[in-house]
Amino acid sequence: MHHYLVTPSSYRYICTRIGLKKKSLITPDQYSRLLNMELPQIIRFIGESGYHEEVHTLSSAYSDIELIEHALTENLAKTYRSILSIAPGALRELAEQYFSRWDIENVMLILRGCQFHIPGDRIRAVLIPAGVLDPPALDHLLTLRSIHEIADHLSSWVHHDIISARITDGYRRGLFASLENELYLAYYDNLLSDARFGIRGGDVILPHLRFEIDILNIRNIFRLRAGSKVSDITPFMVSGGYMTPEDFQRLYGVTDREAFVSELSRAGILTILTEALKNLRCDENVCEADAADVVWRRWAAHKTPLYTVMLSVNTMLLHHLDGLARRHQFSVLPIISYLEHKRYEIANLRAIARGKQFGVNPDFIRQHLVM
User: Fold this and answer.
1) Statement to judge: residues 276 and 245 lie in one domain
2) First vs last Cα of the chain: how many Å apart?
């Protein structure tokens, strides 16, 4: 039995709209050309592509890197709202809930910026306006002078109770890390529940969510090992992935290389990391022994995973989502897949522009792109 979130006719309409926009998505060949351009050429390229309207409108107010930042951010917000506005109710509801994780990231960036007196323009440049909190709402939060004021102005936000309870006693060391962890635990708990039982047809997103949760927990377990003396890590692990919090607790206690590699292999993590390393090095000869060696060195030294490896894992996660979207064409997945590609395109263009601004080697920039 098929549980359609959209009818075939409405799906064709949505895909037609997305198809028109997909033509504006930047291809790997175009990224290669961009990496060899100077900043003025990059601005011209962006202004002649899918960002023409924003660059044209904002060019009188901004120039150089600021023009790129503002044009990209405004285009991203408009794209999300345009696509979601044409989606039927159940599809839009699930997509909005999925992308609400960017509200968490944005709120945490604003809270940290406020507490540590980081200028609003610097925070605004890294916000991803893809959730319920739109650019005007985020701009208003940036004007507030204390984390208490920010919490008060989020009274209608779904996670207000969590943020309000945590901030009641003011800032103390470790507050933001524990708050962020609690927000993400609530986010995935709510999303998994609705996908399974609350929204008709929402179960098609579960394989992607389970994969995504495992990747998140892999990052978290390395961070916990690198930065704390926590003995019980299960409260920090998100439930609902292919691996359980108890699986990660067992892995967390491993100090022997052979046992560590065995646990990674049994859980399927080593296969993921091997593919990521192949992509990163552009070398099909990379084997599981190579990946095990790289990961074990980081683990034994109590360091976080290599950032470039985790970026490559993000590429795999994106391709995994693409595959599910092709198999479930009458679901929310094609919408989520397209919008995720759009978000990574914005991140890639930002990375290229900032890298060029500071004279970073193009090969180094390339390692930080998700394609």
Assistant:
1) yes
2) 35
Does the global pTM surpass 0.85?
yes
Residues 208, 266 within the same domain:
yes
Q: How many CB atoms lie within 10 A of CB 138?
A: 22
List CB contacts of 18: < 8 A, sequence separation 6 or more.
83, 334, 335, 338
Instruction: State whether 221 and 197 are in the same domain.
Output: no
Model pLDDT for residues 71-121, shown as the tens digit of each residue: 998 999 899 888 888 887 788 888 889 999 999 999 999 999 999 999 998
**In which domain, by residue range, is 177 found?**
88-201
pLDDT the model gives residue 199: 81
Supply the CATH number for residue 171's domain.
1.20.1690
Cβ count within 10 A of residue 169: 8
Computed over its alpha carbons, how large is the radius of gyration of the chain? 21
Structural domain tally of the chain? 2
Neighbour-count burial of 216, counting CB atoms closer than 10 A to its CB (0-12 exposed, 13-18 middle, 19+ buried): middle
User: What's the confidence (pLDDT) of residue 5?
Assistant: 46
